[in-house]
Amino acid sequence: MWARDPELAKHIYERGANPRYLPGFTLPPGLGATADLEKACHDADLLVVGVPTHGFRAILADARPYLRPWVPVVSLAKGLERGSLLRMTQIIRDELAGHPAAALTGPNLAKEIMAGQAAASVIATEDLDVAKALQSVMQRGLFRIYVNHDVIGCELGGALKNVVAIATGIAQGLGVGDNTRAAVVCRGLAEVTRLGVAMGGEAPTFAGLAGMGDLIATCMSPLSRNRTLGEQLGAGRALAEILGATRTVAEGVGTAYTVHELAERHGVEMPVCQEVYRVLTGEIPASEAYRGLTPYRQAGHEREPG
């Protein structure tokens, strides 16, 4: 394992624990750690990249001189690159040409996996032979991995659901009720699916682990960074204050901006994600984000969004 901070790498190596990001858990005894990127990459048969999207391209470029040819590269990041609007596997192809690119995604809350609870994930890459090889290497015990060729759908499902999770967190912070949150999750899934299909993803993917499964976990769990951020916004805290008080990254903040651009580019209506974008940009306070979810004045004449 590579860590940017030498002190954290030393702590993981010497004490078998990561108190900064996984407090209370003991790491596997065979897991080493280093702050030396060359040492971490040079002999690797598989490179798994678990850094936030804003640093994803730079770390690939830094690792490029040390990586042997044809080593598969798996992204754990659930987001899109600001500016280019690229998915992470596209960035892998940009920076590490010739290396098979894949994404591992799904409802995977790290602390539950560390606690040994059952979880299911998806390895997505166009080459199913590569996917099956990665599946056999990464699947362990109650951590089950399925394969999917729809890389676009899987990556977009993992990225876009973070924006919906912020919306459900705001609902929690405002105390609007579980019925309202359920409505937002369902309408959010419809939005994510519409945009995902418009960008080349397959509709069934968004009803599976990489879509609905990840959406449910991220929207409902108090362990979710994006849902927690939304909850604090709903409780009246300022975005800058929330971001300044945590070491972890809520990818949904950056993704809200890229989703706004992508929705306009593809002509897709995304009202839930648009409201989150307006809250994050300061156009409206979080308390106004749910002003439209009141009883319909013309009951029986509304169609369910789809």
Overview of this protein structure:
It is a single chain. The radius of gyration is 20 Å and the shape is globular. With 306 residues, the protein is of the alpha/beta class. Helix content is 47%, strand content 8%. It has 13 helices and five strands. Strand 4, helix 6 and strand 5 (143-148) form a beta-alpha-beta unit. Helix 7 runs antiparallel to helix 8 (178-198) and helix 7 (151-174) crosses helix 12. It has helices spanning 6-15, 37-41, 56-63, 88-95, 110-114, 128-138, 151-174, 178-198, 209-220, 225-234, 239-244, 252-266, 271-280; strands at 47-49, 73-75, 101-105, 119-124, 143-148. It has a five-stranded mixed beta sheet, sandwiched between helices. It has two domains: 6-150, Rossmann fold; 152-288, Orthogonal Bundle (N-(1-d-carboxylethyl)-l-norvaline Dehydrogenase, domain 2).
